[in-house]
Design brief:
The structure holds 2 protein chains of 2 kinds. Chain A contains 13 helices and 11 strands. Chain A is of the alpha/beta class. Chain A has 2 domains: 132 residues, Thiolase/Chalcone synthase (Peroxisomal Thiolase, Chain A, domain 1), CATH 3.40.47; 223 residues, Thiolase/Chalcone synthase (Peroxisomal Thiolase, Chain A, domain 1, 3-Layer(aba) Sandwich), CATH 3.40.47. In chain A, the strands form 2 sheets. A 9-stranded mixed β-sheet of chain A has the order 3-2-4-7-1-8-11-10-9, with helices on both faces. A two-stranded antiparallel sheet of chain A has the order 5-6. In chain A, a hairpin with a 5-residue loop joins strand 10 and strand 11. In chain A, helix 6 crosses helix 10 and helix 9 crosses helix 10. The mean pLDDT of chain A is 97. Chain B has a single domain, classed as OB fold (Dihydrolipoamide Acetyltransferase, E2P). Chain B has 1 helix and 8 strands, in the order αββββββββ. In chain B, strands 6-5-4-7-8 form a 5-stranded antiparallel β-sheet. In chain B, strands 2-1-3 form a 3-stranded antiparallel β-sheet. At the A-B interface, helix 4, helix 5 and strand 5 of A face strand 2, strand 4, strand 5 and strand 6 of B.
Chain lengths: 390, 133
């Protein structure tokens, strides 16, 4: 108990389903909530702060609090796409530190796979969205937006498709050990390069899975953490950022991690070199590569060389990442991956990752969430976590 | 060049952007410039996103620019090219590249504006490789 903690993650739960044809979205929220509370050794009556995002149906936090029977004195429904739940970690520890709540519950749930939601169509956030007339007619699917980010990275830094493929290869090496992972087959660089081109330069295997399910976190303050014992994980630093097209001064050379990362590292008084394990948002391979650069794990433009040759594979490379198989192979519930990033980092710090991928003596870890699109407007959140004795 | 081209949905318009779309129908590409800070911006707004001034003015763009990035959407029913084009006026806009072999498109290439009719008869600014129209 040396490093000061802003708060503690006391419980986590990842829903085991990947296709929830027999469950409603509110039901999934309630199931993950109960799972995380049980993991923490708490009950729903202990919860006095509730956090959720745009996946929560109806009136969001109000509807979900009612459905689950929560009685809370603090609510936060910050919506930054898939990064929301990583943002919520920071907001929750701040709310706890300010005395606004003592047990914070964060939930995510979705079922795009059961509902047959495709991602090849254009994204539409409604007619009042100020950008809609200037983007939707041009067919911005999520794949071709990230394709433009990857194409620019290749142009600026010489990054190759082979280097991007190594990220999927590493994720697949981890996913083979996860019984719940959607894709458990180990793939090679050639497998990625030979998969169909979706949106240049991204192949099918450069893309994450579409899956149902969700996850939840229970976050508490020091007093509650002491009463719960040694499985609580310390929140040592958090940072968030918003990046957008800046009035037409478009710059795809970096993403929001370049802003959120330094804030989190500064608060934790740690550096990238201190991290034993990282969970990096992996909607696409390019998301990981760019984020690792922007967080400072390598020089800008050197990401391709950094991820190559198995450097992200646990037990093989220098920086084990996404040991659950990540969004690329395991799970991307509701098309929102920020929750599962935090959950796997907590497993690593508790020593509860699969033995084949557990990082020995994992003491310090990072989880990073990305929301929206790195090629348009995005939310970014970095969380630095420490084992209970860190 | 004879490849099929996708159909274009109508752009959503609003009070701030009606004039942009009316000009497009006349074959003109407009951008907004701020008289207070001198900066152009895109997409057009009444209030300058750079300095917050309400003194913004429509100006006709040259229609010339270069490709900042692009991606060929291979899995669409009719494949198409999404791109960011940086106009000579300095702003970068999302668009499509048309009338080009996919293999001829590259970052840094010069492009010029042209217009496509949308499903409902509006006009949409798109770009083609310069000197190949």
């Amino acid at each position: 108990m040396s490093r000061p903690a802003k708060g503690f993650i006391a419980g986590v739960f990842e829903h085991p389903t990947r296709k929830a044809v027999d469950k409603t979205i509110p039901q999934l929220h309630a199931e993950v909530a109960l799972g995380a509370l049980k993991d923490a050794g708490l009950t729903k009556d202990d919860v006095d702060g509730y956090f959720c995002a745009g996946d929560a149906p109806g009136l969001g936090g109000l509807s979900m609090a009612e459905y689950m029977g929560l009685k809370v004195r603090h609510i936060d429904t910050t919506e930054t796409g898939g990064s929301s739940y990583t943002v919520h970690v920071g907001h929750a520890v701040d709310a706890i530190a300010a005395g606004r709540c003592s047990v914070a519950l964060v939930t995510l749930a979705g079922r795009p796979r059961a509902d047959g939601v495709a991602t090849l169509g254009s994204r539409n956030y409604g007619p009042a969205s100020p950008d809609v007339g200037f983007e939707l007619p041009y067919g911005p699917a999520i794949t071709n937006l990230y394709g433009m980010a990857a194409m620019r990275h290749m142009y600026a830094y010489g990054t190759t498709s082979e280097q991007l493929a190594w990220i999927k290869v590493a994720a697949s090496h981890h996913a083979q050990h996860n019984e719940h992972a959607l894709l458990r087959d180990v793939v090679t660089v050639d497998d990625v390069l030979n998969s169909p081109m979706i949106a240049d330069p991204l192949h099918r295997l450069d893309c994450c899975v579409i899956s149902d399910g969700g996850g939840a976190l229970v976050i508490v303050g020091p007093e509650v953490a002491r009463s719960l014992g040694g499985r609580c994980v310390k929140v040592l630093g958090t940072g968030e950022a918003v990046k957008h097209l800046n009035g037409g001064k478009v710059d795809l050379s970096h993403n929001g991690a370049a802003m959120s990362g330094p804030i989190a590292f500064a608060e934790a008084e740690l550096t990238p070199a201190d991290m034993d394990y990282v969970s990096i948002y992996d909607s696409f391979t390019i998301t990981v590569l760019q984020t690792l650069e922007d967080l400072g794990f390598c020089e800008k433009g050197a990401g391709g060389r950094f991820v190559a040759d198995g450097n992200l594979i646990s037990g093989v490379g220098k920086l084990p990442f996404n040991t659950d198989g990540g969004g690329l192979c395991n799970n991307h519930p509701g098309n929102r991956g920020g929750m599962t990033k935090v959950i796997e980092a907590v497993r690593q710090l508790r020593g509860e990752a699969h033995p084949k991928v557990q990082v020995p003596d994992c003491t310090l870890a990072l989880a990073h969430g990305t929301g929206g699109s790195i090629a348009t407007r995005m939310g970014s959140a970095t969380v630095i976590l420490g084992r209970n004795d860190a | 060049m004879s490849m099929a081209e996708r159909t274009y949905p109508d752009p959503t318009t609003n009070l701030e952007t009606e004039r942009y779309w009316a000009a497009a129908r006349d074959g003109k590409l407009l951008i907004k410039t701020c008289n207070a800070c001198g900066e152009a911006h895109y997409y057009p707004r009444e209030i300058c996103p750079h300095c917050g001034s309400t003194d913004t003015e429509w100006r006709e763009a040259s229609g010339k620019g270069t490709i900042y990035s692009y991606s060929v959407m291979r899995r669409a029913e009719t494949p198409y090219v999404i791109a960011y084009v940086t106009l000579d006026e300095g702003v970068t806009m999302m668009t499509n590249i048309v009338d080009a072999d996919f293999d001829a498109i590259a970052i840094g290439k010069a492009v010029e504006v042209t217009f496509r009719a949308t499903e409902g008869g509006m006009a949409l600014p798109v770009f083609r490789l310069a000197g190949e129209g």
